[in-house]
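[Discussion] Sanity-checking designs against the backbone

I'm trying to build intuition for which residues belong where. Below is a structure token string of 291 positions. I'd appreciate it if someone posts a full sequence so I can compare it with mine line by line.
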């Protein structure tokens, strides 16, 4: 790395250390042709929290994530990550910040012609092309273990993995560069409840041990209840509310009431309440392993 790149990394180190807000979005507007997806959308993600992002299908959750990570250029608005403006900056310019995040895309998006280990190595090769190959292999093996995958998964191709293993492989790739910020787009979609609960537990435990900020798009009510510190609700082209689930329930927006107070929402609340009661009595966890 050049001296200038090192100085830039050090500057971003300080920004990550000192900012209270990991992501700040203001006045965001995105359209595709005549379809406006976001209009005047504001959102803050606090450093160190797991923020759940919910909203009906097609409300623009993935587009919001893509805007933040620079894959979608908004028509209007400002996006800051750890205080660094992300709009209108070339990939090279914001490199020091880009290295601070890892992304698990909706559907996993693993490269099908690469093994799990090679997939995990992709960001390492991209950002640290001169790294010693043996060290690169070791980092990949370590990240694979960290996500709870067995070492035997490393040489397998995505087609040889179960859905849950694919998600973990995607998570290992997202963690490849030791991120401060993790983006997860529907990480538990398509998993059975036990696999989903195990993935949630893994996310929470990684978030705590690594001090991560997590931007977590999900439809999974169990995930929202069990691991999210706050939840942001996308509707009407903006974030209509953000807060704890109790705070959201205190609003009278019909979509929020329907979502959290519908039959599935009530079931998730009941499950969490039961589990909390069990934990207070010191009884073992429910068979599905939810904390
Ligand atoms: N590249 C694109 N070109 C045109 N339209 C797009 C593009 N990407 C997204 N859209 C549209 O923007 C809207 C929001 O899409 P997005 O993928 O963000 O939805 P979502 O909230 O993530 O939905 P889901 O919960 O189903 O994943 C949709 O109507 C989609 O068709
Ligand atoms: Mg989506």
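Best answer:
Here's mine. Compare freely.
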């Amino acid at each position: 790395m050049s001296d200038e790149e090192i100085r830039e990394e050090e500057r971003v180190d300080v920004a990550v250390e000192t900012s209270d807000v990991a992501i700040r979005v203001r006045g965001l507007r995105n359209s595709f042709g005549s379809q406006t997806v976001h209009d005047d959308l504001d959102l803050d993600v606090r450093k160190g929290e797991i923020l759940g992002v919910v909203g009906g299908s097609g409300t623009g959750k993935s587009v919001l994530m893509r805007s933040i990570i620079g894959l979608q250029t908004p028509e209007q608005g400002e996006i800051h990550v750890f205080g660094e403006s992300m709009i209108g900056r070339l990939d090279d310019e914001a490199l020091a910040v880009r290295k601070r995040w890892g992304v698990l895309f909706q559907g996993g998006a693993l490269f099908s012609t690469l093994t799990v280990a090679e997939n995990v190595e992709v960001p390492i090769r991209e950002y640290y092309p001169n790294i010693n190959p043996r060290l690169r292999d070791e980092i990949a093996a370590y990240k694979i273990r960290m996500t709870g995958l067995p070492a035997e998964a490393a040489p397998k191709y995505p087609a040889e993995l179960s859905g849950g293993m694919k998600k973990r492989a995607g998570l290992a790739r997202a963690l490849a560069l030791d991120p401060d910020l993790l983006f997860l787009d529907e990480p538990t979609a398509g998993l059975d409840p036990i696999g989903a609960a195990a993935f949630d537990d893994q996310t929470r435990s990684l978030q705590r041990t690594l001090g991560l900020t997590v931007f977590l798009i999900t439809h999974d009510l169990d995930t929202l209840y069990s691991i999210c510190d706050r939840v942001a609700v996308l509707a009407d082209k903006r974030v209509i509310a953000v807060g704890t689930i109790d705070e959201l329930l205190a609003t009278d927006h019909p979509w929020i009431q329907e979502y959290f107070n519908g039959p599935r929402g009530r079931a998730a609340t009941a499950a969490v309440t039961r589990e909390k009661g069990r934990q207070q009595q010191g009884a073992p966890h429910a068979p599905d392993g939810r904390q």
